Amino acid sequence: MARGALAFVCQSCGSAHAKWSGQCSDCGAWNTLIEEQAAPPAGTSARRSVKGRPFALESLAHSGEPPKRRATAVAEFDRVTGGGLVPGSALLLGGDPGVGKSTLILQALAAFAKPKQTAIYISGEEALDQVRLRAARMGVAKSSVQLGSATCVEDILATISAGSPPDILAIDSIQTIWTSALEAAPGTIAQVRTATQDLVRYAKASGTAVILVGHVTKDGQIAGPKAVEHLVDAVLYFEGERGHQFRILRAVKNRFGATDEIGVFEMTGTGLNEVANPSALFLGDRSGLAPGAAVFAGIEGTRPLLSEIQALVSPSSYGSPRRAVIGWDSGRLAMILAVLDARAGLGISSHDIYLNVAGGLKIAEPAADLAAAAALISSFTGRPLPKECVVFGEVALSGDVRPASQAEARLKEAAKLGFTRAVVPSGTKAEGLRLERIADVRALAKLLAEPSG
C-alpha cells in the first residue's frame, strides 16, 4: 500500500482491510471498520530512505542496585503490582465503565502523594471540578495530588516536562488521548497505540511510573486495553458485578511481579475499602445447611482464598436441559456433568443445572472441579455437606481426582477460619483437619450418600 493511503482498520482486532465492509472477516465483529491512515509497508521508498544508527551493546550482568519500588500505601494495590510501582514502568488498568477505576487510581495517588513524593492525575474525561467532588467525597481533598485536564499527548508531555519529572503520572483514560501526528479520531486503535508509545517512551526516559486507565466495552467499538497490552510492563484488570459491592483487582501481566495475583476491595459511598480477609467476605453467613453448597479452598496468585460454590439441580421442563453458570467456566461444567454420568452413573445431565460462585468471584483454576462436583451431587441427592467442610481437587475425564498445588496453604487457610474437615485427593497430607481422601468421583458420590454426610 502506498504511503499516505487509507485503510479500514477493525477497532476490535486491529486487522487492516482494503475496503469497508459491515463485518470484519478476521474476528467477525460488526460495524468496527474505521478509515485510518496506513503506515508505509516495509520495502517501500519511504522505508528505504531512513538509515539507522548503531548503538552500544552492554553486558547482561546488572551493574547496580535494583530500583526502589514506589509503594502507594494501599496494601491491596501494592500486593497486585508486586510491592509497588517500579520507576520508569508503564501500568495499564482496564475494566468496564463504572466499575471504579478512577476511584482506585485517585485513592492510590492520594495515599502516595507527600511533600517529597509527587503524583499527577490527568483527566481526559472529567472536568477538574468533577474530580475535586470525588476527592471530597472520598476524604482525600487535602492531599497534594496535582490535577490536570487535557487530551492532547503533546500538551501533556510539554506540561510535565517543564518541571522535574513526577514520581507517578496517571492518565484517565487512554481512549480520550490523541496525538496531532495522526488524523484519526480519538479512541481508534492508531491513536491509542501512538499515544501509549509516547507516554511509555517518556516513562523510560524520565523514570516516572505511568498508570494508564483503559475502558473495555462489550461491542468492541472502542479500542480497549488489548490493543496496547504488549507496550506496557504490567496489565491489571478491575473486575466487579454491578449488583455486588466487591471489586477484584487482578494482574494478568507483570514484568516485575507475580501474575494472577488479586486484591479485594469493597465499594462504599466514600471510596474503596481494602478487604484484609477476603475468605470470610466471600463465605458470608453460612449458618444454614441447604443442599447444593460446597466451600472451595482455592489459590489466587499467592493468596489462599475460600469461596462458596452453589449448585441447583432441578427436573427439566423442556426437551433440552438448561445450563446457567455465573463465575465459572461453562465448558468445565459440561465436562463435570459428563464425568458424573459416565463414571459415577448419576444421570444428572438430563436435569436443569444452575451453578453460581457466591460474592461475584470468578474462579478459573482446575482445582475447583471437585467442589463443583460435590455441590452438584449434594443438590441432586438432597444431602447437604457439613458446614465445617472444604473441598478441592481436579477431576480428570477418567473420573480420577488429581492432586492440587499448594494443598498445605489451602488447608491452613481453612483451619484458620474454623473448618475442621476437608474432602481432598488421595495422597494429600495435613495436620489439624480431618481429611476425607478420595480417588475418583464414584468415591465422592458414595461419601456424600452416607447418612452421616
Q: What is the fold-level CATH name, i.e. the topology of the largest domain?
A: Rossmann fold
Terminal residue distance: 70 Å
Instruction: Look at the structure and name the CATH superfamily of the largest domain.
Output: P-loop containing nucleotide triphosphate hydrolases
Low-confidence stretches: 219-223
The top-level CATH class of the largest domain is Alpha Beta
If you had to describe this structure to a student in words, what would you say it looks like?
The protein is an alpha/beta fold and 453 residues long. The protein has three domains: 6-44; 75-276, Rossmann fold; 281-449, Ribosomal Protein S5, domain 2 (2-Layer Sandwich), CATH 3.30.230.10. It contains eleven helices and 21 strands. The protein has helices at 45-48, 75-81, 101-112, 128-138, 153-161, 189-206, 278-283, 330-344, 369-381, 407-416, 441-449; strands spanning 6-10, 16-17, 33-37, 90-95, 119-123, 146-149, 168-172, 209-215, 234-239, 246-254, 262-268, 271-274, 293-300, 303-314, 323-326, 352-357, 389-391, 394-395, 401-402, 421-425, 434-438. The strands form four sheets. The protein has a nine-stranded mixed sheet. It has a seven-stranded mixed sheet with strand order 15-16-14-13-17-20-21. Strands 2-1-3 form a three-stranded antiparallel sheet, with no helix packed on it. Strand 10 (246-254) and strand 11 (262-268) form a beta hairpin. Helix 8 (330-344) packs across helix 11 (441-449) and helix 9 packs across helix 11. The chain is globular and about 75 Å long. The termini are far apart. The model is unreliable at 219-223 (pLDDT under 50).
